[in-house]
Write a structure and sequence with these properties.
heterodimer; A: 452 residues; alpha/beta; D-Maltodextrin-Binding Protein, domain 2; 2 domains; 5-stranded mixed β-sheet; 19 helices; 12 strands; 41% helix; B: 339 residues; mainly alpha; MetI-like fold; 3-stranded antiparallel β-sheet; two-stranded antiparallel sheet; 13 helices; 5 strands; globular
Chain lengths: 452, 339
Amino acid sequence: MRLRKSIALIAAVALSIGVMSGCTPKEDSGAASAPTAGGKVLNIYCWNDEFRSRVEKYYLPEHPLPDGVTISWIVTPNADMAYQTKLDQTLPGNVTAAANDKIDIFLVEADYAAKYINTKYAVPLSEIGITDAEIADQYAYTKQIGSDEKGVIKGISWQAAPNLFLYRRSIANLVLGTDDPLEVQKSVADWTTFENTAGTMSASGYQMVSGYDDTFRAFSNSAEKAIVENGIIEVPKAWLDWVDQTKLFSDNGYNNRTRLWDTAWGAGMAKDSTVFGYFGPAWFINFTLVDYSMANAEEGIVAGNGSIGDWAVTDGPAPSYWGGTWICAAEATDNIDEIRSIMRVLCTDKAIMKQIATDPGVEDYTNTMSGMREVADSDYSSITLGGQNPFPLYTAVADRIDISKTISPYNQLAETFQTVMADYFSGAVDRDTALENFYTAAREKYPELKRP
Amino acid sequence: MAVNARSGAITYSGSGSSVVARPHRHKSISYEKWGYFFIAPFFIVYAVASLYPLIMTFIYGFFERYQVLGQDMHNEFIGLDNFRQLFSSPDVARFAGNTFIIWVVGFIPQIFISLILASWFTDLRLKLHATGFFKVVIYLPNVIMAAAMSFLFWALFGDTGPINQMIAERTGSIFQFMVSIPATRLIISGINFLMWFGNTSIMLMAAINGIDTSLYEAASIDGANSSQTFWRITMPLIRPILLYVIVTSLIGGLQMFDIPNIMTRGAGGTDRTSMTLVMYLNNFLSGTRDYGMAGALSIILFVVGGVLSLIVFYGMRDKDAVKADKQKRKLIRDRKRGI
């Protein structure tokens, strides 16, 4: 009787606590393996349907896959690093995985591209068969993000993401007396005038930006150093400048105290909102802004549908970029021919890339310097931007993007920084506590790093 | 003498006695192995999916073990350093405090409402109608997935949600529920309460139904009022179940994760004041996947949970049976000593 009771006790305790235990990771197999051809399933790991829509619209119609080959999309959301966790768990086993389960293509974002580019899990473009001459027309910064520490290019991108300041024409007319991009630029030319204009906007009942994080990239891309250097986390001065200005904006009501991607943050793009501006590249305008701007989604992108057509772009206070997607071939892939073909068509075929840039509803800024200059000189006009051709401004900013000082595999700490600093902006904690909280959160994510 | 053709058994009939001789192979049929056979799948799955990870978690707790940038695992035995690090920072105590506050704020109304509902629904004199219907209704929130429930409340109390639209109509400004520390905690506690009070009510009802009704009848004949029967009869007799409810809820509270994680988008709310222990554990596993620290924290949670389980185990024993058992053993001991 007593024995049975103790067994019951042990089982009860172990069962009730068992759920708390973590899972065990797979050990690294270690062996490297060259890419091969002939696989039947092209497995593509990504975090949204952007790349899929590009492939389905601009690649598959002209280049059908060989008989018997199918594409399998494995989508894991980016939020909370879920996508990276998925890659971290799957990539090490790719060499030994069954042919139909092998990752063939995985996508990475600018903030953490270096994390994967610097491993053997990403295959050099030269091994795939893409030559340097083929990518000579691409923006240098996109090639730099796609390169490992030794300069070997392993990631290729079809887009570039120069950031512009987006503003509402109607509000500009009311408060500044003009909606002409060149004139409005004078009111946002540098951070001091940007702050002064924010005061003017506030006096008229408008907010300069929607939330805390809108100006972050415009500050952080001009940083004098990366967030992590030599294994030490240290917040660059440019990030702190963002903190101080955003605190001022939050206390004075120059923003709506929202956080990036919140519903309330996006609501600032609707027709009757009092938010003056946002920062964003081409993908932001045509992937995010149009969605929030349209009053009636079924009507589509036509001027007068919500705030569509009431937007315009100008350079803003500082050149910056935001995001961008890089395509990597995975170690031991068995679909090298299809990968080469997709990369070649989407990332180096100038005619296709110009089409991606100008097709209504797509309008992405693509990674061809000469092609983008041609669009800038063309009579292309954007419906969302009230007939403006944003490409002359895009190309000017894209030419000035310099990432050499800020490139780091740890740039996703920017998201942690933004999240933690929101407590300071809302007034819950003081600046030092917020910074302390950031270092704590950063070291939980990356225990290998030291703090200053 | 007669020979049974089918079994081959030979029956000797005599006056007043009969002897049956069975063939040897029939002598020891054991059905026991089939019992083990049928419960084996559970133990095999448990060993692979639960016991093995549990053991590995204990081992990892003593290692510095994490992946640097998705590359090979850094793995080194460091003894108790993980525990030292955990206890040297104020975080574990802070997050344990958060977890406890959120749990207790949800649990007090939960046990209070559940006791009232359970005693009403089982009251012989009230004779409520349609109790079956109400039992289903109060249980329904528990059927909904915790994550879905969190999303619902997150949308309700968001800056652009319906609650804030009503507030804005009256006051002209909004209230940021997810920025206010008490509001965030209260909403999480509220969801916990809403999801679990029905479950607790039904458990307590079962406990009360197990009480012999003649006790209540006798009490009412003796002139006891309903509060007397509740405090003198119901409460003492459902005490073991009440203890069980409290401790299982405490263990559930200790593991609180999905609701606060969704409500605060994994960040733990303003200044991490709604971060629970398991959210903290999850922090180690997103990003670099620090199995060492996560393992050490799991061991701490294991010990706390184990202590709570022991309390329920000893608290639920039948006091009289334990006493009788003790007396019996004492008797045997005494007899052996020759007293």
